[in-house]
Amino acid sequence: MSENDIFEMDSVCDTEELEGDTELGMIDEEVVYPEEFLPTYHSIKEGTRIIKTQLAEFNNKPDSLFFNDGVRRIDFILVYEDEDKKEYEKRHTFQRRKRRREYFEASLMKMGVELEATQSVIDEKLMFVKVHMPWEVLCTYAEVLHIKLPIQPNDLSSRPSPWRHFSCITKHFYPNEELISKETEYFTAPFEKDRLDYFYIKDKDVFFTPSMRSRMAYYILSRAPYEIRGNIKKFGITKLLDGGVYKAAYPLHDCRFNVRSTEEGCPNERFLLYEEWAHPKSFYKMQPLDLIRKYYGEKIGIYFAWLGFYTIMLTMAAAVGLGCFIYGYKTQETSTWSKEVCDPEIGGNIVMCPQCDRFCNYWRLNTTCESSKKLCIFDNYGTLVFAVFMSIWVTLFLEFWKRYQAELEYEWDTVEFLEQEEPPRPEYEAKCIYERKNPVTGVKEKVPYTACGRCVRVSIGMGTVLFWILLILASIVAIIVYRLAVFFAFSKKLRNQDLKQLEPLKEYVTPQMATAVTASLISFVVIMILNILYERVAIWITDFELPRTKTDYENSLTLKMFLFQFVNYYSSCFYIAFAKGKAVSYPGQPVYLLGKYRNEECDPGGCLFELTTQLAIIMGGKAIWNNIQEVLLPWLKNLIFRYCTRVASEKVIPRWEQDYQLQPVSKLGLFYEYLEMVIQFGFVTLFVASFPLAPVLALVNNLFEIRVDAWKITTQFRRVMPEKAQHIGAWQPILQGVAILAVATNAMIIAFTSDMIPRLVYYWSFSVYPYGDHSNNTMEGYIDSSLSIFNTSDFSKSSVPATESGLITTCRYRDFRYPPGHPRQYEHNVYYWHVVAAKMAFIIVVEHIVYLTKFILSYMIPDVPYAVKEQIKREKYLTQVILHETNLKLVTKRLKPVDEESVNDPEVKLAMEELELDF
Hints:
Residues 66-289 form the Anoctamin dimerisation domain. The protein is an alpha+beta fold. Helix content is 52%, strand content 8%.
């Protein structure tokens, strides 16, 4: 049977309704089903009676986390609609779902899981199935998942905090220790069911934390079979949710977020997280990362740890960026070249050439006075220093994050969380129809595709991604055409002296500024629309590729989404920074895009301020839009849901039904949170030379982002499925790649986008002899030297202004060319080649210095702190010692004193062989 046939059968079985006579659990006689086809989990044999879930009435305990007996803890909740409560004429269409559900629940009970169903208080059609994991089942799957559990309290003294002498001040910035006490640290080892004696078990009921129990429950739910048809075994809660068999599946919150529970056995961790972390009043406090990790799992914990660390590091960058901005603001009035632009005797007498054909007019340079002053705020020597500083900052951020991450890996027992410990995704296992030899273990294993099939899948995926990237580039070209098409209209309107209503704004609104702002707004709208479309495409491609593990799936999706977002968000910025105004030639021979649209020119001071405007609009608009999505949408959805399902106030709603009213967690979890922050990281680093306030905006946004995300997952969403994670995954190399690229982009922005290098060349070379008339180095006369002269009689017929005045014989344009009448008129002059050489030298020198500094810092700062290395060694040593001692105790208990006769006893030999095998 081909792969396509299998996939077709799979889709048919998922969608057909009561076709054929095959019952659930009944295996076709004609097809021999291989046991190793899927994970070897229990399935119901043919003819076996299906055990149904036990029903129980709600016991009117709204905050109870247990079955009705008050002993068995609820580890997971399944929700479905009872088909028997539906209308009679529609009831038959739901019988297939009912049989699948009954088969699935019978499979769970056969695997040792205990179930109890309770009818909804609000809607009698809804049924809530409570899932409990008994001790034996927990021990079995803790070993399967290699969960590390305590073996002995940590006897190593912790390093004293450098802030301990200021504890009277710092204590106000940490969570209340009376509410959230510091947990005891333990040395841990992977759990083994047969060696319970050497684990630190005080109470079996709390040995496995609720998040561990939920994680193991979900592992079983994801692999329990629900149907066998022909030679296809179907399994997993994910497909049942997609097919409507169940409406929801989630672990329980332990209490209401704003009310402390009085139920016995409730730790009230959700309430503590809200009070000390998610509540707006706690915005200034450090995050309780250990409690976050304990309640939500390591994956959520590592995200908030990274976000908090990134935000703390941003404070330094924001302080320096704000200082650079203040320096530029204070010196804008003293800038010599800006004064010349605004001077009526200098800038007022300089007539600039039209910047578009026919409909644009001549204009005076001093009309850009206000924009030149604004440009001084961002285009100054402080910006150069700040760009170099940010290149060093990003290296320090990444290196210190690695160290902090290593500490968290040890504290959270993820040091040895290897890929082979991560189980395959159920979607991957369901398609395994081919066999291959594992290159590592040498054991035959099932895979869903051949090597050729994988190449086809990857090729289709890459081709689709490339198509969408080209689509983005096409949209950028369309926006460029828009800019070119409307620029002449703005020029005609804003230069028209008869337009009285805009008179107060003429000093501030220039054609370039109006075009830049409107194009930026349109670009932002296009970006958001393409994001929505591509998101679904990227998920479809990744699903089609069938990655083996969830980590592989997320890494593959991460790369696709980031490539798309990189082009989507940054392409317009790259155009303004490195393309606009670079290929315009001179007024007598302009360059045209598509043979029709005359290429854009920059302001006389360059395109830097336009790049700043683009960054501010996209960064600000993105932050506002994301916060609206993250705060308002979940809140409104929950409000509408509660309104539609409102009940009388006297009714008591159980804990599981309260959670059902919350928003479901996205399948991709934290993916979009990471993506949002990494895109922001790119704005902060890639183009920071043009916008020193980018770190300030990022810092303010992140202070809100941390609390918004905390508030959202604590109050508006169902409890997140706890997952293991060692680090931030594929985002780490992406951040490193952005950091490397940032050095080059900032160096090129200063060299090619700003006007700093031409000003420095003029100051040191062309203001004095032999090129200049001044006796000392000065910036006086720079504006005149940076604007070339053009004879208006040299306009081509298609470019000559329609309102040409015979009084204007020459005009100026931004370039370094010989004047008319010169033997080499309109060719680049010596000033131009000096500037080009200086720009290239600047890029090479700055890049080499910064890259060398980054390399030295990376080498000098170890990724793993020395104290963590020592603790890891100590833990491994203790694990070996305790294992050895435990085996000796077992042998001692089982054996009498060894004598010549007992040495030959088979039981003695067996015990001694076991001891030798362990070492």
